[in-house]
Design brief:
The chain is mainly alpha-helical. It is built from 4 helices and no strands.
Amino acid sequence: MPSEPNQTDAEPKESAAAIEARNRLNASMSPGEVRGGGAEFFTLDDIRRMSRAEVREQYEAVLRSLERSSR
């Protein structure tokens, strides 16, 4: 009988409504804002939506994101 991998009582499963709400919030944020409180990485779509000024401002994070996505 398969069980959920690495799911413990200390980590409650996030509801679909909560995931959708978080995704809406993230979509409404500026691409330069940190998401999830972790390391700052951007998706390729985030980078495409950035203005030139935002790319210049976030240059190092954009490079790290591109390096990470090419792996």
